[in-house]
Design a protein that fits this description.
The complex is a heterodimer of chains A (365) and B (234).
Chain A lengths: L3 E3 L6 E4 L6 E7 L5 E5 L4 E6 L5 H11 L7 E7 L9 E4 L2 E4 L2 E5 L5 E6 L14 H12 L1 E6 L3 E7 L7 E7 L3 E5 L2 E7 L2 E4 L8 E3 L2 E3 L3 E4 L12 E4 L2 E4 L3 E4 L4 E3 L7 E3 L2 E3 L1 H9 L28 E2 L4 E7 L12 E3 L12 E5 L2 E9 L1
Parallel strand pairs in A: 1-7, 3-5, 27-30
Antiparallel strand pairs in A: 2-6, 3-4, 6-10, 7-8, 9-10, 11-12, 12-13, 13-14, 14-15, 15-16, 17-18, 18-19, 19-20, 20-21, 21-22, 22-23, 24-25, 26-27, 28-29, 29-30
Chain B lengths: L5 H7 L5 E8 L3 E3 L4 E9 L14 E7 L11 E9 L8 E2 L3 E10 L5 E9 L17 E2 H12 L6 H5 L5 E2 L7 H11 L2 E5 L5 E5 L19 E2 L2 E2 L3
The chains are: A mainly beta (365), B alpha+beta (234).
Chain lengths: 365, 234
Amino acid sequence: MSDIVSLARRVSQVDVSPQFDNYSKVVIHVSDDTIYVAGNDTGRTLEIDNPFGTQAMANNMLQSLTGYQYQPYEAQGALLDPAAEIGDAVNMRGAYGGIYTRERTFGRLMKADVSAPHDEEINHEYQYESPEERRFTRQINDVKASLIIANDRIDASVSQTGGEQASFGWSLTSDAHRWYANGQEVMSVTASGLTVKGNVQATTGTIGGFNITASSLWNNLSSFGGSQTSGVYIGTNGIQLGQRFKVDTSGNVTATRLTVDTLYIGGSAVSAATLNARANNGNSAYGWTSSNGSYCTGGVGNWYGAKGGFGSASDIWATHFHSSDISYFATVSTYNIRSYSSGATYSPITFTLNGRTYHVFGYVS
Amino acid sequence: MQQTSALYQSILSGDSHWFETQLVIEGAGTFGETDLFSISTSHQMFHGSPTIGSAVAGEIQIKMVYPQSVSIPTMARLMPQVRVCNATQQSEWLAQGVYFVDTRERTVTDTGESVLELHGYDAMLKAEQPFQSNTITGDSTDVQMVNEIASIMGVEVDERTYDIMTAAYTIPLPTGYSCREVLGYIASMYVGAFIITDEGKLRLVSILELPPETNYLIDEVGDAITFGGDRILV
């Protein structure tokens, strides 16, 4: 709490102005878009700029201002006790107010001019700003920029205090160059290298030994289809590893060797057991099942050792079938089977099944 | 008001008293009235008009005999002091501000005397630097922030400041703001201003802390009439 200093008549001149009216409203300007208001327009309005303002703060300020009336005065040539401080109250010639300015001249009398100034600039009863003031305020509020050059660093920042609440800045110190966005570090350059947090775009250059172009990322293999023994190409034409593996944009795979856990053909999985069966049946991958004409899976109706495989859409060629399959051909509308003996000239067995013509150059075993 | 001794108050209330001034210059010594031509100081809570949220630096202007035998260090502290005296007694020295040399100029009078003119600001000007702290790296309370800024400025916080700052407002990390701006914003929260006291401490003064007006029975020159040492309230 401040103290009261009684000057009484120990002052050369006193000018007292009427007290301000009571405050009834507090306005805190946080930014262009954010204003907190407490109270009503029945009295004086106290307006402040404060980026840390809150509604609770405005309410508290209004509550503390309730009943307060500012008393302007000016006292010249006051024999003021040197122990009096800024903020103390002074009582003189019927006036009572705070010591808010103090001009002292040191001497035997220690005279001072003290006052609570009257001039009002922002505490208006009618809130008015000229168009020029508003334009200037808007410009100041739109972008606030600073460049600080100190002996140990250089800081620059631009703060946009409009709707986006965006800001950007950088700091150059003896050990790092850091960039910030919205208060977070997004990039830094130190002796250890460059660190970027966020999106990176590059249309040329190198990264970790890989060359960057607008359409590819490559190392020792600058184009798809290149003949280099080793290298990597990842680009809009496909993916290639050296000479022996590549995938084009149509999905065609070229590989010297594939190791596959599950192979899908036409949407169906083909197991390793199936592939082994075909390999065991004369090392041929061709055949069909009697029921639907699909690929051979072994058992009744298998035709294996195919000579020509599926030579055409309507003709199947094979060299041998099991006698157990003969009964199946009872359902075949037309067929002709000739026996075969070793060394004899054979004639094709020809029959039609489901619209396909089958030719068997072989024998029944 | 500054705390003063009973002797100070006794001499001050006497019919015949005067003040003596001395100037302590850090690193250069103490200069009495025979060395001093004039000293004036200026303090204000506002930037010219009754606004809140200020942190205005106090100023001092000194004219003194040019010290031939000592040199005044760069940004030396200037500490004027006064005491009250009568014919037989002198009080303790009372601090009248702590300032730092800003500019100095040597002139020669018509009579050939060398005069040193010093101009200085109090420590509030040290708040005119970007807020940068190793202690506060995020949100803090207003009291924590004031303590940290005082530390940056190299001053103590006047204890009366804490009596006012009771709302414990949250202050976001004030990146890009100067210490003085932050002090101003905090001061506005409490409808006041920050100043540097005559003892060189950082103090928040609120315009709301004026005590209720009281009137005491006084004599013809304005001194309170006492009864058994107590003033008489009318």
